[in-house]
Every structure is written in structure tokens, then in C-alpha cells.
Design brief:
This protein has helices at 5-9, 29-50, 57-66, 71-74, 79-82, 86-104, 109-119, 125-148, 155-168, 171-179, 188-192, 197-204. The protein is mainly alpha-helical and 206 residues long. The chain has one domain (5-204): Hypothetical protein af1432, CATH 1.10.3210. Helix 2 packs across helix 8, helix 2 packs across helix 10 and helix 3 (57-66) crosses helix 8. The N and C termini lie far apart (47 Å).
Length: 206
């Protein structure tokens, strides 16, 4: 018997985000999920190295890959619609839950217990906050990319996302913004000039 779970996951690349916005370049759910995973993993490592935390960076990263999987079936509901009222939020949460259940039903039984925590994003509270911050950082990066192309459509979204990230009170996100976010506005040639001498020394010792 053929199982459809992974074939359905591959459909993430067909779900377009920012549906109500004029985009210079469309972004799909697969791209967003990968970037969010990279960012969530990085925030966890920053917390562990800089702030003495004990996050499971790999767990956070994997959860981020799957965090928007229900949207394969629901589509990406624009933020102004999704958060228009408490009633709409509750209804959408119920639809997301049904979508997650549908995805899990596509798995063979012996794999369900492995994927259910990822699909339902079952994380400790602190790690779930990291994931939320990474999700919004990914959206903020999209705003910066659009601004670089002269698209003013995302100006309000950028301000809103910066405010939301600050309200999450995730210090790891603050560190990332301070040390890494600015580089997203550089050209490829400018990025190629970046080098950390201490890292070069570390690499030479491998």
C-alpha cells in the first residue's frame, strides 16, 4: 500500500505566502519553512552559547520545518484575515487541527508517534517561543528583501513584525537582529568580503 504523507509534504512548494501583498518575488511555504528552521536552530545555539540555556537545537529546528504543514491543506490565510477577530482565530485553529490530523492519517501507524510531535509542534514553552521568534524573523527578512527591490508594499508589515518580535521578549532574537539581520541588506559582493579572523583560525586547526 502506498502512503501519501511525504508526497503531500512536497506540495508545500505550491503554497504561496503573502497572498494579499504585491511581491517582487513570490515566496512559497517550503522556502519559508526551511528559513524558519535555519533561524530557529540558530536562536537555540545562540541561547546555549551566549545565555547559558540548554535548548535542544535539533528538536527546535525540526519542529520549525513542520510548523506550517497544516497549511498544505488550508492554504496560507493572510494575517489581517487570520487575526481579524477571536472567532476567526478559533475557527482557523480548529481547521489547522483537522488538517494536521489528516496529514498524520497518511502515515503508516508505526511512524505516527515520531511525526505527531512535529506536526503538532510539541515543544517546551521556551523552545516554542524561539520558534515563534524565528517564524517572525523569516517574515521580517522577506520584508527587507522586498524593500531592497524598491517595493514599499511591505513597509507596514516590517514595522509590525519588529514590534511583535520585541514583544516576544526572546533575547536570542535580539542578539540575532543586532549581529546578523543587517547583512541581509548587503549585496553578494559585500557579503563575500565578510570574514571572522577567529573563525579562520578555528577552521585551520581542523
Amino acid at each position: 500500500m502506498q502512503n501519501g504523507f511525504f508526497a503531500m509534504l512536497s506540495r508545500m512548494k505550491h503554497i504561496v505566502r503573502w497572498g494579499l501583498m504585491r511581491n517582487t518575488r513570490p515566496e512559497n511555504l517550503s522556502e519559508h519553512s526551511l528559513e524558519t528552521a535555519v533561524l530557529a536552530h540558530a536562536l537555540a545555539l545562540i541561547g546555549n552559547r551566549r545565555l547559558g540555556k540548554s535548548y535542544d537545537a535539533n528538536r527546535v529546528g525540526m519542529a520549525a520545518i513542520f510548523h506550517d504543514c497544516p497549511e498544505i491543506l488550508t492554504g496560507d490565510l493572510p494575517t489581517p484575515v487570520k487575526y481579524y477577530s477571536g472567532e476567526i482565530q478559533r475557527a482557523y485553529k480548529a481547521v489547522e487541527k483537522e488538517s494536521a490530523e489528516k496529514l498524520l492519517q497518511m502515515l503508516p501507524e508505526d511512524l505516527c508517534s515520531d511525526y505527531a510531535p512535529l506536526i503538532y509542534c510539541e515543544l517546551p514553552v521556551a523552545e516554542k517561543q524561539l520558534l515563534k521568534a524565528a517564524d517572525k524573523l523569516s517574515a521580517l527578512i522577506k520584508c527587507l528583501e522586498e524593500a531592497r527591490q524598491g517595493n514599499g508594499e511591505f513597509k507596514t508589515a516590517e514595522a509590525h513584525l519588529r514590534k511583535k518580535i520585541a514583544e516576544l521578549s526572546v533575547p536570542e532574537a535580539g542578539i540575532f537582529i543586532s549581529e546578523f539581520l543587517g547583512a541581509y541588506e548587503l549585496t553578494l559582493d559585500e557579503l563575500n568580503q565578510y570574514s571572522c579572523p577567529s573563525v579562520d583560525q578555528w577552521i585551520s586547526n581542523i
